[in-house]
Amino acid sequence: QVQLVESGGGLVQPGGSLRLSCAASGSIFTINGMAWYRQAPGKQRELVAAMPNGGNTNYADSVKGRFTIFRDNAKNTVFLQMNSLKPEDTAVYYCNALTKRTLYWGQGTQVTVSS
User: In whole angstroms, what separates CA 1 from the centre of its chain?
Assistant: First the structure.
């Protein structure tokens, strides 16, 4: 099993930055890739950024050039650096980890972009 714990959310003004963290523990050697999703009120959960093992990262069009997904393997942590934040980025952000058999989710962290 894999456990995921997100942190780093909060309230930020438009144009500001936040860095989200997702710390993985448990059977991390089984993880094939990790990703960040978000869900705004009344909307479906959507992919923000993905980082497959040994593959290219990919981003939603709405965040390209503003968000960056990267990892620190020594800390078993994946990050989402979010710059130039917009009110429409407001959502609960979730990280997930995909193994051969299971997709694991974290509990989510709230990001609110507002003046």
Answer: 19
